């Protein structure tokens, strides 16, 4: 028995075509990965804070509520005050035993500068506990 290795002296041709099936498979996997990760990346850009879920605030009768509206006006327990009056009242409150907690309620579009002034006034007066009041996020939809 004889094995026919070649056909009458002809050589095998080199295949110059690239098999693209593995390339297509890899590209489809990458496309799926990008389609999954793009919505996560785009949801991190628009910022609308503050909304946070935390333990319910235990409001004590001796706590102080300072509200700051979008124009930077300060309100001490719903009464309009200026910055020197705020600092004076905070100094009086800081020497009480037990020291009352200060709850800062800032409008969502208030410039941070106005909130920072309240925090600085609390720090200068010696208030040890300052909390920020936020709105819980709306679930569903």
From TrEMBL:
It is found in: Cell membrane. The chain crosses the membrane at residues 26-45. It is a single-pass membrane protein; Single-pass type II membrane protein. The keyword Membrane applies. Pfam families: ExbD. Its main location: membrane. This is Biopolymer transporter ExbD. It comes from Paraburkholderia caffeinilytica.
């Amino acid at each position: 028995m004889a094995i026919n290795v070649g056909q009458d002296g002809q050589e095998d041709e080199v295949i110059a075509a690239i098999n693209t099936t593995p390339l297509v498979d890899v590209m489809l996997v990458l496309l799926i990965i990008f389609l999954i990760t793009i919505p996560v990346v785009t949801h991190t850009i628009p910022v609308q804070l503050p909304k946070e879920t935390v333990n319910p605030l235990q409001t004590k009768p001796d706590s102080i509520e300072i509200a700051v509206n979008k124009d930077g006006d300060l309100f001490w327990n719903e009464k309009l005050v200026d910055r020197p009056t705020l600092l004076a009242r905070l100094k009086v409150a800081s020497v009480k035993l037990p020291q009352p907690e200060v709850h800062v309620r800032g409008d969502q579009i208030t410039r941070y500068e106005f909130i920072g002034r309240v925090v600085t006034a609390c720090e200068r007066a010696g208030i040890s506990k300052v909390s920020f009041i936020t709105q819980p996020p709306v679930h569903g939809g």
